[in-house]
């Protein structure tokens, strides 16, 4: 089992989409839990490649192929993660302006759907006005903002302030690698989570 997780991790870091898909399929057949595969093989792979990138040992093309291999593996987990109960509430989700990182946000969507939320995924690189318009249009129970860059995470405060003008009690959750719970409190967010599974749990707690 441990070896299988290591192979998945290596396939993703190497950006081998076919191997990633095949190995995730095999791991599921062997009875490994989707959450285990995600937390112990796929996410560590992205951390590895990110660290190598920081040390100038990996470059953008490697990040791109690793991300593609990760998405390929996620496709197999999606039906399992999203096959949950229904009727928890409505979530509007998106990545803030200037930020095109989508993997974490997509994972949050899957886990929230698995927890029974209807999720409207607005996509990535969204201007503050897009969040405000979507909030008016969908009246979600929760608005979720994702940011992966220390430069773009500051946009989250801008979105929170703009949405609170139209709804002072709006429930807004924030997340993404550079975001901390202290930062979430500082910018006035209603909730935070460091991973997608926790995001779904915290979302449920927020709306009870
Ligand atoms: C893959 C990747 C890319 C891919 C993205 C592909 C895609 N479709 O997403 C590409 C190649 C496009 C990319 C580009 C860039 N990247 Co990049 N990238 C990464 C990498 C390696 C992995 C990110 C990832 O997918 N992680 C896996 C997911 C599962 O984790 P996650 O995103 O953190 O999400 C989890 C939680 O944070 C949380 N969460 C996320 N969102 C939300 C939202 C809510 C509401 C909640 C509650 C929770 C939550 O739940 C998620 C699931 O568990 C990271 C390194 C790293 N360790 O993060 C660098 C990293 C984020 N990138 C970085 C940089 C610098 C860039 C570039 C500027 C590089 C460049 N010079 O062009 C560009 C910027 C592009 C842009 N404008 O956005 C830096 C950021 C440094 C910083 N602090 O600002 C990092 C940290 C790499 C590094 N170590 O230097 N990148």
Describe the 3D structure.
- The protein contains 9 helices and 5 strands, in the order ααααβαβαβαβαβα.
- By secondary structure, it is an alpha/beta fold.
- It has 2 domains: 2-81, Methionine synthase domain (Methyltransferase, Methionine Synthase (B12-binding Domains), Chain A, domain 1, Orthogonal Bundle), CATH 1.10.1240.10; 89-207, 3-Layer(aba) Sandwich (Rossmann fold).
- The protein is globular, with a radius of gyration of 17 Å.
- It starts with a helix and ends with a helix.
- The model has no long low-confidence stretch (mean pLDDT 95).
- Bound molecules: cobalamin.
Task: Write out key terms for the chains shown.
alpha/beta, Rossmann fold, 208 residues, binds cobalamin, 5-stranded parallel sheet, Methyltransferase, Methionine Synthase (B12-binding Domains), Chain A, domain 1
| Overall CATH class of the largest domain | Alpha Beta
What proportion of the residues form beta strands (DSSP E)?
5-15%
List all distinct small molecules, including ions and cofactors, that are bound in this structure. cobalamin
How much helicity do the residues have?
55-70%
By CATH, the topology of the largest domain is Rossmann fold
- CATH fourth-tier homologous superfamily of the largest domain: Cobalamin-binding domain
Would you identify the regions where 5 or more consecutive residues have pLDDT less than 50? Answer: none
Based on secondary structure, the structural category is: alpha/beta
- Main sheet: which strands, in order across? 2-1-3-4-5
Number of domains: 2
Mean pLDDT: 95
Q: What is the general shape?
A: globular
CATH architecture of the largest domain: 3-Layer(aba) Sandwich
Provide the succession of SSEs.
Answer: HHHHEHEHEHEHEH
**Main sheet characteristics:** 5 strands, parallel
In DSSP terms, counting alpha (H) and pi (I) runs of 4 or more, how many helices?
A: 9
Number of DSSP strand runs? 5
Termini Cα gap? 38 Å
GO molecular function: cobalamin binding; metal ion binding; methionine synthase activity
Domain B12-binding N-terminal: 1-89
Protein name: Cobalamin-binding protein
Domain B12-binding: 88-208
């Amino acid at each position: 089992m441990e070896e299988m997780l290591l192979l998945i991790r290596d396939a993703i870091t190497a950006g081998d989409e076919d191997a990633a898909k095949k190995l995730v399929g095999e791991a599921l057949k062997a009875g490994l839990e989707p959450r285990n595969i995600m937390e112990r093989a796929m996410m560590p792979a992205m951390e590895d490649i990110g660290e190598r990138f920081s040390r100038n040992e990996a470059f953008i093309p490697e990040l791109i192929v690793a991300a593609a291999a990760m998405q390929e593996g996620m496709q197999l987990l999606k039906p399992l993660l999203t096959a949950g109960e229904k009727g928890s509430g409505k979530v509007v989700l998106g990545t803030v302006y200037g930020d095109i990182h989508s993997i974490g946000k997509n994972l949050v969507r899957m886990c929230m759907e698995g927890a029974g939320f209807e999720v409207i995924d607005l996509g990535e690189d969204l201007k503050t006005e897009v969040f405000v318009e979507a909030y008016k249009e969908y009246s979600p129970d929760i608005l979720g903002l994702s940011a992966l860059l220390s430069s773009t995470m500051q946009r989250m405060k801008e979105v929170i302030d703009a949405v609170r003008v139209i709804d002072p009690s709006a429930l807004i959750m924030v997340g993404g690698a550079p975001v901390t719970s202290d930062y979430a409190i500082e910018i006035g967010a209603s909730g935070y989570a460091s991973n997608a599974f926790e995001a779904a749990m915290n979302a449920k707690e927020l709306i009870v």
